[in-house]
Specification:
alpha+beta, about 15% strand
Amino acid sequence: MHSAVFDYFSQPELPSPVLPTAEATALLASEFGIDATLESLGSQQDQNFLVRTTGAAGTTDSDQPLGVLKISNPCFTEAEIDLQGVAAARVASEQPEVRVPTVLASGWWDTSAGRLHARVISFVSGNTLTGSGYLRPAVVARLGALAARVQLALAGLEHPAAHRTLQWDLRHAVRVARTIAETEPDRAVVDEVLAAVDSAATVVEALGDRLPRQLGHFDVTDDNVLRPDGPVTLPDAVIDFGDVADSWAVGELAVTLSSVLHHDGATVWSVLPAVRAFHALRPLSSDEVDALWPLVVLRGAVLVLSGRQQVRLDDDNAYASGALDREYRVFRQAVSVPSAVVTGVLRRALGFPPATGLTWTRRVLDVEPVLLDGGTTSPVHDDGRWTAPDALAAEARRLLDAGAPAVVLPAWTPVLTSAAIGAEEAPASVPTGATLWLAEPTTIARERCDQGGAVLQFDPADRVDDGLVLPAGVPVHVRVVAAEHGDADLPRAVPAVAAPGWRTLLGDPAVALGAPQQAPPAPDDLLARRDRVLAEVQEHYYAEPPRIERGWRDLLVDVDGRVYTDLVNNVASVGHAHPHVAAAAARQHRLLNTNSRFHYAGIVEYAERVAALLPDELDTVFFVNSGSEATDLALRIAMAATGRTDVVAMREAYHGWTYASDAVSTSIADNPNALATRPAWVHTVDAANAYRGVHRGADAIRYAPEAAERIRALAAAGHGIAGFICEPVYGNAGGIALPDGYLREVYDAVHEVGGLTIADEVQVGFGRLGHWFWGFEQQGVVPDVVAVAKSVGGGTPIGIVVTRREIADRYRTQGYFFSSTGGSPVSAAVGAAVLDVIESEGLQQNAVVVGEHLADRLRALGDRHALVGTVHGSGLYLGLEFVRDRTTLEPATEETAAICDRLLTLGIVMQPTGDHQNVLKIKPPLVVTRESADRFVDALDRVLTTGW
């Protein structure tokens, strides 16, 4: 039997209790025996206080509050209040991994505001997601999972008060919205909101009887979940069971999704991780999927109208007034895309069959068109032609001039355009219709443009009595729309993620134009195939990486036509897809490519150019295929030349993956057991890091004498030192400069004990540092052996070792040297072309100019964001180090990884480096522009401001 419970429609106005804090404090002590101080908390319809118990001498335990004092709205009955506690206890029992509060004290108080029910609910530690900061996909997914777990826990639970009628119950949302609208004074708000309500109602009312019902929380939102303390944690607690009721089960998810929409950077599509996570735990039915987004719209409508009403009733309610803007953002986001479109995307994401779309089967164009491929990998876009605003139109005109009667750019296939450059959001790259260029004006009979309930639209077109005249030589947009949407303002292009949804409203005009129809793309399984066929240790950037298939200068492009700014790719030193480099490789491939034992000009001429870039005594060149091979060979040369095997290396460095180069690599980021697993012939000295090493600031001058003494001590102990290897600029830690004079003193000690000095220039050499072409130049020294790679090939695998003739000659003691493709004709041609570009385009000077501007802007971030520790480096090898405390220098490791992930969502490719993985490794192609640098810093500033 049902007990009497609250019915919103009997009392649609609910001013919250306003008990004075002093009175609540006194009653808490007298009624519950709790001496405490109270701190007012926000609530829309109840009154809440944070309870801090009073300790000795009247002090408070500020670190651990006792809980929350909740004074219920007097409209709610005792049975309803009991329902909240029962539901929380059920979740705690059925889903123990979800933290929930418990009731510590409960009872009725006689107050100055009348008889009120009060409860003290236990404190649940952590932080809510309140506010409109960014929610990363993992957090959004966790929101969906929590909603599912709460619903699973409450399934089957019955209670006498479950049938209460709340304004937040989405079964009543249409009636609630229309009821509140009658008192809303702003008719523009009423018209906007009720139009959305009426549209959503047509879907929900048709499905309502088929939607399963159960008891639910119905407020698992950003305000009502808690994440543990820590830099990058996921919510694991649910609070505030005040809206528990019996309603449509899918409403649980709808409410959760709505709370995502007001956060920074959120779009309609930001909710997809939550939907997938919910569905994985508590599968949705087809009807529930169809009802889900209309319910989100209704939730947004009720939030707007109810929030405005609450402020009118209780203008001192700061919680309600402070929520108005974000509630309107929720609503505006919810209606920014038609519900049918969102539903189409949701059905595809969850594996449901798509809704039936429009089909056009009649051909109306009588000529045979040429198809224009505008996709990311189309040859039309080669050599950067896609960066011109009229690139596709120019190609269409070329085809027409070559004799094509018509050219068609198909619908529903992503198109790459210059408009995507610099966009912080995924561009509208998928055309919802075809684009047609005609060689001659063409008349289309009007009756041929209607087929059942579908209409074929052309724009522009001149209307004549018997049909439409399509102009020649200009783009004509062609699409298939439902007759009822014929006059609607429908987008000509949409983001790739939205395309499956829009295909439910718009058809494909391909058949009408005599072109092949574009089938919806199959889900991309390339990453899964990669995981199956490649070794696990051959990793990829990002957990869910974009599929990159084109590059141009300092830009990367994915298959959906999204353009990213590349701030991490020092391999593509002269920019992606440089025409001069590509032409040199293609030309040489047409001539000859063989191993380096053949006699040909390229290897000699390139070796001469490389040697000319170095001090005169470094005159003999070896060619290999990578940085690892180059450092490996450099070590073997030192061992052969000295007849010794022991090597001294700097700690926290990375030199490669071959046996020898890995042996001297001591970065725990690359190998957590690096120091413990070094072979006996490897000895280390402290990393000369003046920022966070054992000697900091002015004390960094101690590194060099200590390293020199270490080298002398090893020699005195009988270790024959073959050589000392380090990066002249500490690349693996983010481009940290060695202390002034460090290499001079250490090199002197090495030579003193008969060893050779090796400069690993693989990352920092070849003009990247700006003021110095080689890193060792900054230290005023000349090494005995130089190893370089990465930048020298511009993406082609080339490694180089350069030394003195007498040292090279001693390598014969180790037998012969042969690298099949090291210095091959193609490698030599590419290497020479890269040098051509560095010289002709002034890229070393660009590293100075853009690098200094970028470093200045990064330093300025430190004035606004405490997470910024310092900026390392020179030119276009920079490191931005993040710390949680500028005194202790506690590394912000988790934050740095999350920041890189957020930057990707804003179109910036960036990765962490350093032993603590807390440094942004900023090493873009040398062609990077000032505009790209500003784009990166602006995006980073946004991330540091709004969250990651």
